[in-house]
Amino acid sequence: MTKKEYMKLAVELASAAGGQTSPNPQVGCVIVKDGRVAGVGTHLKAGDKHAERHALEMAGTEASGADMYVTLEPCSHHGRTPPCADAVIAAGISRVFTASSDPDPRVSGRGIKKLLDAGIHVETGIMKEEADELNRRFFHYVTTRKPYVTLKIAASIDGKTATSSGESKWITGPGSRLDGHRLRHEHDAILVGIETVLADDPELTVRLPEGGIDPVRIVLDNELRFPLQAKMLQVPGKTIIFTSERGGKDKERLLKEAGAEVIRLSSFRIEPEAVLEKLGAVSIGSLLIEGGGTVLDSFVRAGLFQEAVLYQAPIIIGGRNAVPAVGGSGMERLSECPRLVLKHVEQLEQDLKLTYRNEVQKECSPEL
User: Which residues participate directly in catalysis (predicted)?
Assistant: First the structure.
């Protein structure tokens, strides 16, 4: 096998964690001795052994003089677990091949330097693009201290999420809805506005055949209209309600007694930037925004999102009174519109799943 093939195996091992390592990155490791895989490892969750340590334990004495392929630069700091770079050195690994450098300020080149200082040959950048993609949410969080934001939209071909009468169940098919639950499973938190709570009374839980981890539930509610008997207060997990100075103090007390956490912002309007700062401060590294239209509009206008996932159903609803996916008054000029980059297309039964990234473009529209 080639170096790239060994690293591909390490990337596949890293992806097996399914985004559940937050606030840590997803990491896979392969140890090779005399052309044979001697050990493999995956970091499964925060607090668990890192991928390198799992692989070293499997390899045992064969680690001495072996090559290590790891998707991320080995850590060099003391966290919940000891530094992996020290374990690599102690095991007698001869060469280390990495895909990504770690942008975490606690590591950021220090792990590689420690290996080099110990006389270990280090080669970086093998399958870097694939490994960086796997940890895009983690990289964003550790460099900005704010969550990576994904907008989720389920709509018709003409961008509607409900008919003029308000009927919306179901626009997309079972495959899209199941995949939407996988998105929830992959994110630390899920956010909706109070109008969605009042209209749908959602649980915002993960419902997958294989199970899953429920994200923290976030609700934006300027005036604290959140119902005390809402379903999301009846199910396990944390619910955080953001409110403004307009939210009643008595209602805040009642919501806290019902099990909700209430964060009051010192303004008369909830601003997306303030929400992201607060969430980042409590180690929420990824945020899935499911709506409604007004909430999506506020984050789009502020440019505070990194990804958008559109589940597009093969139906046309039509009509100016039908509910659009993104509400508000809309942009006045095309130059104000975020021009997204299409990264992935997947067919889910009769629907399309379109994944976009909010990457800066030089021009919003071509000259005619």
Answer: 52
